[in-house]
Amino acid sequence: MIEIRQLMAGEEKSIVPLIREAFDTHISVSYSAQGVIEFYKYIDVAAIRKRMQENHEIYIASSGQAVIGIIELRNNNHISLLFVKNEHKGTGIGKILLQHAVDQLAQDGIRQITVNSSPNSIGFYTSQGFVPLGAEEVTQGIRSLSMKLDLAD
């Protein structure tokens, strides 16, 4: 059974290996060296802790004691991270995490969610109803496509 809950302060270290493994396997190959370094800075434990104290919430999906996916939300309307453990890719964990976030945000009256999708995740977000907002951009070596999802009233 999959459980979704908010990541608590002090648990930041538990998500970094999952994020890094998925990033290294699926995303880093399409980034420049600078982009990889910038991403690693973003997922540093201290950086995650700081974001959690400010305007970010992180939810984890777990099966038993194992964390198998994470989603991070910024400003209650932007997905800043969504990763699934490599051996659980294609099992619906990403959809479950995204739906949990959508449900939470809709309850808070949020009408639109945005994401800066890595090139390899565009198909996933498109399949979930997101639409592109423009062309792919590269910022500090990180490739992304801005996308949005309008939430139903």
Question: Can you describe this structure in just a few lines?
Answer:
This protein has 153 residues and is an alpha+beta fold.
How are the SSEs placed, and which strands pair?
Layout: E1 2-6, H1 16-26, H2 33-42, H3 45-53, E2 56-63, E3 66-74, E4 78-84, H4 93-107, E5 112-117, H5 122-127, E6 131-132, E7 137-139, E8 142-150
Parallel strand pairs: 4-5
Antiparallel strand pairs: 1-2, 2-3, 3-4, 5-8, 6-8, 7-8
Order of helices and strands: EHHHEEEHEHEEE
Instruction: Please summarize the sheet with the most strands.
Output: 8 strands, mixed
Helix fraction, binned, reads 25-40%
Shape: globular
Instruction: Give the distance, in angstroms, between the N- and C-terminal Cα atoms.
Output: 30 Å
Identify low-pLDDT runs: none
Q: Count every helix, treating DSSP H or I runs of 4 or more residues as helices.
A: 5
Strand content: 25-35%
Total DSSP E strands: 8
Derived from helix and strand composition plus strand pairing, the structural class reads alpha+beta
Radius of gyration: 15 Å
Mean pLDDT: 94
